[in-house]
Design brief:
Layout (H helix, E strand, L loop, with lengths): L4 H15 L4 E11 L18 E8 L5 E9 L4 H6 L2 H7 L7 E3 L10 E2 L8 H27 L14 H20 L30 H13 L1
Parallel strand pairs: 1-4, 4-5
Antiparallel strand pairs: 1-2, 2-3
Family: Belongs to the HARBI1 family.
Subcellular location: Cytoplasm; Nucleus
GO molecular function: hydrolase activity; metal ion binding; nuclease activity
Length: 228
């Protein structure tokens, strides 16, 4: 994650150039990586598509560099639960990143430091906000697609990882870090682009549910000042 004022500003500028969305330093999403059925607690690894997986939380910057991740939760775990129980959220809650923001889809809770789409927009400003949100946040979906294209062992077209959840998490982590090395060295993306195969999140578990007290106020302010 960016830490110095200059790094924070540079990261926010990269996202702002996409669609004028202010103060964003990262886009967050979850992705499922198929694993073989574990011998212990097998049921909790079955996700909503009925295959065994780890649900991996990823945050990337505007250049597709992965700046935070968590690969320790079983497939039945919802994105919002992973977010609420990760160290990164605690840092945002403590004000480590000031007034800078993450962008998440409707599977995440609306909080002062994580902006989600307006579930039922009622005016043009909210619709403009939603369009800017989608165009800006798509970088994380694209990044996840690229990672799985580079390393087919974590894409479902490559089958499933034939290891324990702990060993699988280490393999996934290695793939994420190797992706960053590719980005930093300017190695081209794979030519044969597979689609990210994950399922959409349930909007009612995130979206407009304001778990942070002032999340709605922050979003309303952004809509009013930048898209009104």
């Amino acid at each position: 994650m960016p830490s110095t004022p200059q790094q924070l500003q540079t990261s926010a500028q990269a996202f702002s150039r996409v669609s004028n969305f202010p103060r964003v330093i990262g886009a967050i999403d979850g992705t499922h990586v198929a694993i073989k059925a574990p011998s212990i607690d097998e049921a909790i690894y079955i996700n909503r598509k009925r295959f065994h997986s780890l649900n991996v939380q990823v945050v990337c910057d505007g250049n597709g560099l992965i700046i935070n991740y968590s690969a320790r939760f079983p497939g039945s775990t919802h994105d919002a639960y992973i977010w609420r129980n990760c160290n990164l959220r605690h840092h945002f809650s403590r004000g480590t990143f000031g007034d800078y923001l993450l962008l998440g889809d409707s599977g995440y809770p609306l909080e002062p430091f994580i902006m989600t789409p307006v579930t039922n927009p009622t005016n043009e400003a909210e619709e403009l906000y939603n369009r800017a949100h989608v165009r800006t946040r798509v970088v994380v979906e694209r990044t996840l697609g690229i990672v799985k294209n580079r390393f087919r062992c974590i894409h479902r077209s490559g089958g499933e990882l034939q290891y324990t959840p702990l060993r699988s998490a280490k393999i996934i982590t290695a793939c994420l870090l190797l992706h960053n090395r590719c980005v930093r060295r300017g190695i081209p993306d794979p030519n044969d682009h597979l689609q990210e195969e994950d399922m959409p999140n349930e909007a009612h578990l995130g979206g407009d549910g304001d778990h942070g007290g002032t999340g709605r106020e922050t979003r309303d302010m952004i809509i009013r000042e930048f898209y009104g």
